[in-house]
Amino acid sequence: MKKLIDLHLHLDGSVPYQTVRKLLAEEGKSLPEAELRKRLSVSPDCRNLDEYLDKFDFPLSLMQTAENLRLIVKELLQELRGQGLVYTEIRFAPQRHTKFLTQAEAVQAALAGRDDFYAWQKEQEGPDLHVNFLLCLMRLVGQDEANWETVKVARDFMDQGVAGLDLAGPENEEVANRKYAPFFQQAKEWGIPYTIHAGEAAGPESMREALALGTKRIGHGIRCQEDPALVKDLVEDGISLECCASSNLNTKVFNQIAEYPLRSMLGQKLRVTLNTDNMTVSATNLPHEYQLMEKQGLTKSEERQLYLNSVRAAFASQEEKERLLALLEE
Ligand SMILES: [Zn+2]
Questions:
Q1: Distance between CA atoms of 125 and 191, rounded to whole angstroms?
Q2: What pLDDT does 170 receive?
Q3: What does the pLDDT read at residue 201?
Q4: Residues measured by CB to lie within 5 Å of ligand 1, the ion
Q5: Cα(122) to centroid of ligand 1, in Å?
Q6: Does residue 51 carry a catalytic annotation?
Q7: Helical H runs in 143-267?
Q8: Mean pLDDT over all residues of the chain?
């Protein structure tokens, strides 16, 4: 089995089907399989990022208690380990789990789920999966107060399993990345690393704005291909890009996998990584993403480069990075 690293995986978009069934059953509910798929995963006629983001409402409705969050994290991690993952950074926006919980309580619940998984993992054979969490600020109008709270919660839980921040949500002028500068200025002062979604629905300009906020990592960033000068800057500054092929096909950034420029970006010496984004919404997993790219001719040495790029980009300790590099040589 390949050893894999996923740096861009949203918790609410990756709730395992079996866990959803279990949680519905606890409420005395069930849904026919076809209906469940329709509620959780995008159909082939999904037109854009906004339609894609609609698929998060249903899973989020099940993620409002500490018990549910804890179980979802544990079962997702068990599934990821079974797919060969050895390190992952799971991201979520604690402010979207506050129907009954505070943001800090939502983070504690996720960490408890990780502890449950670690306890289970002790009894398993094979390489361990290590996990860190990234907390997402939401790129939505009217969320400033909640976003400030998230920055503070990240500071309070750094080194307890939270490893950084993200900025996620729709991409448009009203919520342009540059408008979030004060949050990331504060994060920088507190030594919290961050990544920012850019260059997905919005073009190269959104990536330039993300870079101006001081980010070393960009979520997606695939649309840098429209701007050769930007590509040059990204290479020179060693910026890591968290690419997610199936997700970009769902949101129609690309119409077919043959157009997906991952291999040519590796050829441009961009620090590209391959990730899932949303396993359940996109009905994918990381082994499947690699298979898609292999069908496009991904070579063993390119695959190795993707792994090395992920290790370099990870918001992990030096010790953890050394473990990951050693695993590659086994
Ligand atoms: Zn994402």
A1: 36
A2: 87
A3: 84
A4: 219, 277
A5: 30
A6: no
A7: 144-157, 181-189, 204-212, 228-236, 245-250, 262-267
A8: 96
> In which order are the strands placed within the sheet that holds 4-10?
4-10, 85-92, 130-138, 162-168, 194-198, 217-220, 240-243, 271-274
Centre of ligand 1 from the C-alpha of residue 182, in Å: 22
Q: What's the CA-to-centroid distance between 14 and ligand 1, angstroms?
A: 11
Contacts with 47 (C-beta within 8 Å, 6 or more apart), sequence order: 252
225, 259 contact by CB (below 8 A): no
Cβ atoms 76, 10 nearer than 8 A:
no
Residue type for 27, please?
E
Distance (angstroms) between ligand 1 centre and the Cα of 278 equals 7
Determine the distance separating the centroid of ligand 1 and the alpha carbon of 125, expressed in angstroms: 31
Active-site residue, from 200, 209, 242, 289: 200
Average pLDDT of 50-76? 94
Residue-wise pLDDT tens digits, 28-54: 999 999 999 999 999 878 888 888 888
> What is the distance in A from the centroid of ligand 1 to the CA of 200?
9
The domains found in the chain, sorted by start residue, are: 4-329 (3.20.20.140)
Model pLDDT for residues 169-215, shown as the tens digit of each residue: 988 888 999 999 999 999 999 999 999 999 988 899 999 999 999 99
Residue 123 has pLDDT above 90, yes or no: yes
